[in-house]
Every structure is written in C-alpha cells, then in structure tokens.
C-alpha cells in the first residue's frame, strides 16, 4: 500500500492507540504505523484469577481507573506530547461492551479536544496487524489463523482491510476451550499458558480425544464437543476411582486442538495457493501450535510467521498499526462512534452524519511505498 500522508512535523505520522476490549488496558504510540515508540499494557489477570475468568463489570471499572495513567505513560515513554499526536485509533469491537465504551469514550474526547482524526479499529483486525509490526516487510496476501479467548477465524487477507473468511468457530473459541478445560483439571485462570506448560510434561498419546472436522470440506471449527469429551473422561475416571494424570489430559487435549487447527489451516492455504501463513491472537502464543504449524507448513514450502509474545496478547500497538492503514484507506470515524460488542471482521465504520470531522493531513507523494512485497 502507498503511504500518501505525513504528520504535523512533515516527515512521519504519529498514532496514539487505545485498547480496552477485555481485561487489558493498553495504549501505544506508533510512527508511520509500524514503528512502535511505546506499548504500555496494564493487565487485570491477577484481579480476575479469583473469579476463574473475566468479570465484565469488574473489568470495566478497572479500565476507568487505569486508562488515563496508561495513556500518559505511553506518551512519556514515546517522548511525545498530546499536541504532537496526529490521529487516535481505538478498539470499538468486538469485546465486552462496558470495557469497549471506556476506550471509545476517552478516544472520542481526545480527538475532539485535539481536533485530530479518530479511527475505529476492529479488535480481530488488530491481532492480524500485530504481524506487520513484528515483520516490517510483511505484505498481503497471506492466510491468517486468528485464535484467541473469544475468536477463532481462518481468514485470507487479500489486502490491507480486505478479508475472505474461510472458516470460524461455531461454538467455543479456542482460548475459551483452553480456559474451561484448565478449570476442570484444577489449573485456574488463564488456562491457555497453564495447559501449554503442563502439556510439555504429559503424553499426548495416553488419552484419545476426538478431532472434530465437521462436514466434508468445511473449514469451520468446533471445540465444544472436545471440551465435553474431556469433562466426560474426568467424570468417568473419578467414578471408577482411577487416577487422573493431569499432565496427560492437558497434552492429549492440546494435541487434539492443534491437529484440527493445523490441518484446516494447511487446507485453506492449499485452496488459496498461499505461500505465507500468519498466526494471530492470544492462542498464537501457544508453543506447540507454533512449532507444529511451522514444521508441517515448511514440509510443503509454506512460510509461517507469528508475533512475539507481547504482541499476541491484547495491546495498543496492534490497534495503532490497524488504525494507520485504515486511515490510509480513508476510514475515519465521526464522534458518534459507539462500542459494537459483536463487530465482524471486515465491517468498517461509516460516518452516519454530517457532524464536523477533525482535520485530515495533506496528501503528498503517492509513489512512496512502505516496503517490497514478499
């Protein structure tokens, strides 16, 4: 994509991004969309552990407490002031509605006060764009497997902001299944990292759990049946008074999940003739998924890319990158932007009123490119 804009200083554009979709309060400052000057994340994991999962109302209240401090820290670490920011990007969905509203409200107030563009960002899209930060030379097209606590998508990324959804979950998201199984075997919350670590000590062949592929040719996912199979196994073992080796349960469950994810992703790549596969989302941090997908893809000549661990979690940097490319396409929001908890990947906010917009920076050389495609 071309880079036809510049910021207030005439050389680069600074984006302030805010992410509050679930239980991380995050803010980041980016230069020209891919260079991260700061990326501050305030996690609520310890707060929600005692509940066994995220409590929406608690998360929302904590965002209110943290958001101003997190934004100021991001600016301080980047060495910039509010007056130097060229645009503000914010997650407006999908996510927990109360949590989203905190970030959206702050972003709208700042965009109005500073008279700068406001860009609404899809949280799922943000996860994809984390890979553009990790690899500055990465360009579409590629196939992306997006797996997190609330989402499981297999999407073909045709171009920036252009997606073909090839498969998605019909019930539990991958991360949700990890959390529920972790709770069942007494690991606590969050389940994904705990199962990943425990599975390394277990034997994935000790127990067989079903691999759910659905109807022939489908690239959709379903993990509720697998979760039920694990619960039934635990219940049966307890009824019979037999020992439960939790390391083996974790390893067998994780193996069943990964086999389905990898096989469907490789089939999606085959259908599209893709030479690159990209991982995104919180579950992209799973070590076994990374290793297995990379190994199997390389056997057939496909490269696999994934973000560093700090970019897999919910973070402002990925939202800032997505905001930058949305702005290049002209996707700015008005001050009536609202939280959309069930926002779909590929949906774009459209200005619905004639409400006055913050200013747009001048158009400059349209022949400047951000990098060679590969």
TrEMBL record:
The lineage of its organism: Bacteria, Bacillati, Bacillota, Clostridia, Peptostreptococcales. InterPro entries: ATPase_NBD (IPR043129), Gcp-like_dom (IPR000905), KAE1/TsaD (IPR017861), Peptidase_M22_CS (IPR017860), TsaD (IPR022450). This is tRNA N6-adenosine threonylcarbamoyltransferase. HAMAP family: TsaD. The keyword Glycosyltransferase does not apply. Belongs to the KAE1 / TsaD family. It comes from Thermotalea metallivorans. Its EC number is 2.3.1.234. Required for the formation of a threonylcarbamoyl group on adenosine at position 37 (t(6)A37) in tRNAs that read codons beginning with adenine. Is involved in the transfer of the threonylcarbamoyl moiety of threonylcarbamoyl-AMP (TC-AMP) to the N6 group of A37, together with TsaE and TsaB. TsaD likely plays a direct catalytic role in this reaction. Its main location: cytoplasm. One of its GO terms (molecular function) is iron ion binding. GO terms for cellular component: cytoplasm. It holds the Pfam family TsaD. Fe cation binds at residues 123, 127, 314. Substrate binds at residues 146-150, 179, 192, 196, 286. The keyword Kinase does not apply. Its cofactor is Fe(2+). It is found in: Cytoplasm. Binds 1 Fe(2+) ion per subunit. It comes from the Bacteria. It catalyses: L-threonylcarbamoyladenylate + adenosine(37) in tRNA = N(6)-L-threonylcarbamoyladenosine(37) in tRNA + AMP + H(+).
């Amino acid at each position: 994509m071309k880079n036809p804009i510049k910021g207030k200083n005439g050389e680069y554009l600074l984006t302030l991004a805010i992410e509050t979709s679930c239980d991380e309060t995050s803010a980041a400052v980016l230069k020209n969309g891919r260079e991260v000057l700061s990326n501050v994340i305030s996690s609520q994991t310890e707060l929600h552990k005692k509940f066994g999962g995220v409590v929406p109302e608690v998360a929302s209240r904590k965002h209110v407490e943290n958001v101003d401090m997190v934004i100021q820290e991001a600016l301080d670490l980047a060495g910039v002031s509010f007056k130097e920011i060229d645009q503000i990007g914010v997650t407006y969905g999908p996510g927990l509605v109360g949590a989203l509203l905190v970030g959206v409200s702050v972003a709208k107030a700042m965009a109005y006060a500073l008279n700068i563009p406001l860009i609404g960002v899809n949280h799922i899209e943000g996860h994809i764009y984390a890979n553009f930060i990790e690899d500055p030379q990465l360009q579409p097209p590629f196939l992306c497997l997006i797996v997190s606590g609330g989402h499981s998508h297999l999407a073909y990324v045709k171009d920036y902001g252009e997606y073909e959804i090839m498969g998605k979950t019909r019930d539990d998201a991958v991360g949700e299944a990890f959390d529920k199984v972790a709770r069942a075997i007494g690991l606590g919350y969050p389940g994904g990292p705990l199962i990943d670590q425990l599975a390394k000590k277990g034997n994935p062949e000790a127990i067989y759990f079903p691999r759910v592929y659905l109807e022939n040719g489908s690239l959709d996912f379903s993990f509720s049946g697998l979760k039920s199979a694990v619960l039934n196994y635990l219940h049966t073992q307890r009824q019979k008074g037999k020992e439960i080796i939790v390391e083996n349960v974790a390893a067998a469950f994780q193996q069943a999940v990964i086999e389905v994810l990898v096989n469907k992703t490789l089939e999606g790549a085959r259908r599209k003739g893709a030479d690159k596969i990209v991982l995104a989302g919180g579950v992209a941090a799973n070590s076994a998924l990374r290793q297995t997908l990379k190994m199997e893809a390389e056997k057939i000549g496909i490269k696999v890319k994934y973000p560093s661990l700090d970019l897999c979690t919910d973070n402002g940097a990925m939202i800032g990158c997505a905001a930058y490319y949305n702005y290049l396409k002209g996707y700015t929001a008005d001050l009536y932007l609202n939280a959309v908890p069930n926002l779909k990947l590929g949906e774009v906010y459209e200005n619905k009123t004639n409400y006055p917009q913050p200013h747009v920076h001048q158009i400059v050389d349209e022949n400047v490119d951000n990098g060679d495609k590969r």
